[in-house]
Amino acid sequence: MKYPSANELQRVPDKQDSNERISEGMTASQPKDDESKACPACGAGGCSHWFAKDGYDHLRCPVCRHGFVHPVPPSEVIAAYYAELSGGLTSYASWETEPRHKIRLWARLLEKVRQWSGDGPLVDLGCGAGQFLKRARERGWESLTGIEISAKAAAMARDTVPVPIHESAWRDVALDKNHFAAAALLDVLEHEPDPRALLQHVFDLLRPGGCLIITVPNTRGVSLRCLGRSAYAVIPPEHLSYFCRESLGRMLSEVGFDRAYDSTCDIYLKEWLRFVPGGGNSSGSESAGAVQRAHYERSYRRMTGSLALYGISAVNILLGLVGAGDQLVVIARKPPEKRDEA
Questions:
Q1: Most CB atoms closer than 10 Å: which of 18, 39, 74, 249?
Q2: CATH node for 86-333
Q3: To which H or E segment does residue 212 belong?
Q4: What are phi and psi of 260, to 5 degrees?
Q5: Which of 84-88, 192-196, 213-217, 250-254 has the least mean pLDDT?
Q6: Any idea what DSSP says for residue 311?
Q7: pLDDT on residue 10
Q8: 160 burial class (0-12, 13-18, 19+ CB within 10 angstroms)?
Q9: Average pLDDT for residues 22-31, to the nearest whole number?
Q10: Where are the alpha helices (DSSP H) in the chain?
Q11: Cis peptide before 4 (omega within 30 of 0)
Q12: What is the DSSP track for 238-272?
């Protein structure tokens, strides 16, 4: 199987893509009879072909509705993708954009975690440019650690916040088990080839009663329901898993977590700017990705001004009530007492 490069994947979806949805009850192509695999979220068999994009097949669980790339690309393909990653509207954009619309959300989540697990060490796995660690430090969290596999993002994180940043994959960082009061996986789990293994690793790092904050794209959010596989959130091999409340809840339960809080919020701005003049294909010497990125940044600054943030908060309340936000937000808690072994 030939895997496309990062540059080949950073493109504007065509009209045909935009008409192929991945909403509940719809598939982009017919199931393949010879394609079946156990669901990585709940373990159910019979996962069938969901859709294909950019040469990557996606399967879906018939029980918990978890979606995932299968087969998982080789590690060297994934490493090469991230080494090439630049510009456009991939993770690269989040490293250089001040996440103003997330600051209030992060403050609420940190306060909930403090109430449930108390003060103590916090580790951010996949910390990006360190924005969350910076906000945690401002809110009184003192013992902070970051892990980031991207050299560029890790360097930015060190400039953002004066805490230890390990430039490495999470598997290669030796940290004390049963030590951390809190951990964060913010827009990370969807990138992980083996999300269950990562959750188990974090479970082992947390002390009894410790909390894990998770954010992932929500397959039942308004953008994925409307735009289907043409959504920017569907970007293999960067995103390898696609979660909803049911699938993430099952995976957390299988690992041993209790789900303490969940909600949805946000409409992904970058999903919809393509339909605004100036946000589509480029002309001249600039790449389409550069034009999209510049348009996104201009619009983001306008739409996250002081007054606009109040509007965002109101929209998030509504999205949380109906479960249609593009971002799924979960706090999972390691039980205060060890479970009895069978």
A1: 39
A2: 3.40.50.150
A3: strand 206-217
A4: -90, -25
A5: 84-88
A6: H
A7: 37
A8: buried
A9: 42
A10: 6-9, 15-18, 75-84, 91-96, 103-117, 131-138, 151-160, 195-205, 222-227, 245-255, 269-272, 288-303, 306-322
A11: no
A12: T--EEB-HHHHHHHHHHHT-EEEEEEEE---HHHH
- Residue pLDDT, tens place only, 176-221: 999 999 999 999 999 998 999 999 999 999 999 999 999 999 999 9
Looking at residue 252, its amino acid is L
Q: How far apart are the C-alpha atoms of 152 and 278, rounded to whole Å? A: 29
- Nearest CA to 124 among 88, 87, 154? 154
Domain residue spans in the chain?
Answer: 6-79, 86-333
Q: How many CB atoms lie within 10 A of CB 50?
A: 24
Q: Estimate to the nearest angstrom the gap between the alpha carbon of 41 and the chain centroid.
A: 16
Buried b (16+ CB within 10 A) or exposed e, 262-287: bbbbbbbbbbbbbeeeebeeeeeeeb
Residue 87 to residue 90: CA distance in whole angstroms: 7
- What are the backbone dihedrals phi and psi of residue 56, each rounded to the nearest 5 degrees, phi first? -115, 125
